[in-house]
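User: quick one
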Amino acid sequence: MAKKLISREENYSQWYNEIVIRADLAENSAVRGSMVIKPYGYAIWERMQAELDKMFKETGHENAYFPLFIPKSFFSKEAAHVAGFAKECAVVTHYRLKDDGKGGVMVDPDAKLEEELIVRPTSETIIWDTYRKWVKSWRDLPILVNQWANVVRWEMRTRLFLRTAEFLWQEGHTAHATKDEALVEARQMLDVYTTFAQNYMATPVLRGVKTENERFAGALETYCIEALMQDGKALQAGTSHFLGQNFAKAFDVKYLSKENKQEYVWATSWGVSTRLMGALIMTHSDDQGLVLPPKLAPFQVVIVPIYRKGEEMEMTIAKGKEIKAQLERVGIRVKLDDRDTQKPGFKFAEWELKGVPLRIAIGPRDIQNNTVEMARRDTLTKEFIPMEGLQDKVLNLMDEIQDSLYNRALKFREENTSEANTWDEFKDIIANKGGFVMAHWDGTSETENRIKDETKASIRSIPLDYDESEEGKCIFSGKPSKGRVVFAKAY
Amino acid sequence: MAKKLISREENYSQWYNEIVIRADLAENSAVRGSMVIKPYGYAIWERMQAELDKMFKETGHENAYFPLFIPKSFFSKEAAHVAGFAKECAVVTHYRLKDDGKGGVMVDPDAKLEEELIVRPTSETIIWDTYRKWVKSWRDLPILVNQWANVVRWEMRTRLFLRTAEFLWQEGHTAHATKDEALVEARQMLDVYTTFAQNYMATPVLRGVKTENERFAGALETYCIEALMQDGKALQAGTSHFLGQNFAKAFDVKYLSKENKQEYVWATSWGVSTRLMGALIMTHSDDQGLVLPPKLAPFQVVIVPIYRKGEEMEMTIAKGKEIKAQLERVGIRVKLDDRDTQKPGFKFAEWELKGVPLRIAIGPRDIQNNTVEMARRDTLTKEFIPMEGLQDKVLNLMDEIQDSLYNRALKFREENTSEANTWDEFKDIIANKGGFVMAHWDGTSETENRIKDETKASIRSIPLDYDESEEGKCIFSGKPSKGRVVFAKAY
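Assistant: Done. Structure below.
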């Protein structure tokens, strides 16, 4: 039997790493900071992609693909943007290798690029350079484009899924005739992300606006969703930016309006990444391993036949196939684990570690009784249920587990959201309890930075759904505040 | 009215470029040799991806993701592989930019990598470095993995879709316990590609084996499918490689067999890329523009309402919506072009250029008569047909058009496949008629190279489906030949 996971209590960070590795989600590669996403992990990501892609298309977006490489000079065109990304850019300087005469290869010094190319950390610059060619008149607007791509940000401290040098994501880039339309788009995509997080990932998220400090490099406004992990730390799960006319001005993208005037175009961009995998893992998993919401689980049900070799084996596997076919007919994703190389106990532990929502075991006695043994991953409870009506039972359980995971996570967040009204109270909560802390802030970057320096807690957002009408005094400076903001330590 | 395309007759190469640009498939970017795939082009690629992905999964493969960057030293480990790819590698040497003090940015010389990273031109090396960790015993085999990814090969002369510095593709990488199993896999994937090309792209392909000269760098055997374009040139549409134990030996990937012996693992890799877009365009399109097979068309039917403003507009658009809903109920992809900013003639030309298989026009008279006007893109024929039974009619036409495109392309290929029995005959056909030329060859690289030098025709493959039993004499050297091979000029 494989060794148990370390518990969350004992070492949360190691627990996370062990789940990622042992549930076959991802692993480190030979390239510093770059991960390999393994088939089981990738299957979850594919389900996320499929659902998000559907939602993007339903809101009128189309996919396209832009170059991986961005000419270095493009980065200087938007001042805030380059300041934000310059320190973490992978740079291509040469385009050829040659024999080094020692059995290896070396970079060919004769193949130096005139202008270095940056491996995209995000694609605003190359895309707005392209949009200049696409936009002439108001008839060409809006442009509602999304791209599924890999990006590279040279992070110094990396963690699987949460922070990697290369990651997979989608980046939407839209162009609009008016400021209002762009603002509506940015908010709409925040709603799409919220719906996805809550309905598919079963992860409650807090919607808000970033402070100037935490804004995307080049944005006028960054909307975000923040989720709370089980260790009381926040994780930014998605962002949607209102970019104003910054990139249109940097890349000279104008359109002829209905009124026959040349106007700069308004922009948004928005993205979520494989980081969502980290959020998913840390929201639901327990000391037995991964827990997956049914809507994103590659297998929603695993069937394990229990037998002694011979006739029992044939009979239970045949029954397993029958149940599999029956469940698949109503759209359930089923794995029949009929490996003859592993014992049932091993299989139980493996699928528990991999977070399959429901396990069905069938032995000869079950066949006789016309029942199956069913185990729920979320509650770790078991029951015998009759074969008759199994389809409906499983379909209902899918919904029930999905809802129950969401409600459990919501309850956790509610229990771990506090109000702080004094500086001492604030420090105490951040240091001891963790979680989201709603507190008054005077609105200055200076105060925000000093609070972060002293407590490691940052302002996650100025929340959109929290009562903003309440005025008060900044917990740190005592100066007037227009409403509470959300503080937390964050990933 | 927009200007007509140049004709194939007049300038085939320009005709191709004009279709790619004007049908909104792709365009050149600011980065040398890298293209932007526009939404309409990307929608076709997405359909290709979806169908291929389904076929890969049906044959037991899973998707995964491996790093974009490959340490330089990995390339030296397989001698033939590095020789094949070293000359076209983009190399990352630095990981940071800094302010250049002149309002721009420069590469930070303090941020030089100890070992340079290669942007993957293909992923055998990084994947086999990973497989070493995944494989211990025969129980871990086979590994049947595919990756959808971008790759970079620094081509000096590029053409949209056909040859670009960065392109999108899938690369399958499988690991097997035995040579036979790997050979069966390589052949199976060639069959998958063949089925896809013929059934979805409506493109007939010739299946064969590459000569040593044309083999993938690191393969023992390269299987390929070759399609014939309308200008008589061949296009390699997909390859599947039997890699033997080359990469297992280079990366020390061994397994413990059932007989308790350490054995090297056997490998295959196989891929198709956005190059298929080029094949699709050049197989079917005509002087009016793109022609798409219904199975890959983003829109299979476009509906254009014909009206004078006012009541007619309302009425014809309402009817258009009704027909759209009706067709969508049976799974047909429909675009209703209700733009009020363009005239019907403009719309007709646009959708013709974009290759939509069927166009339905509805005017007030049609509504009165309970008919529609239907135009087929492949034959450019029109007919009035009754509204009643429209669904079935359209469904049938989808199959008919799909088949008819395939048969037309097959007929073209048959008419442009010749046998040559003397050197003069061979040169004459290559220079004047083009197409596939079946001729005897003595089996040596020397002869192959000399024929290529003199005529620009290369051996596309030793065909699998052509009668190989016929012996003869090499058209160039007169030496004995075991069977005919396929020569052609190629993209």
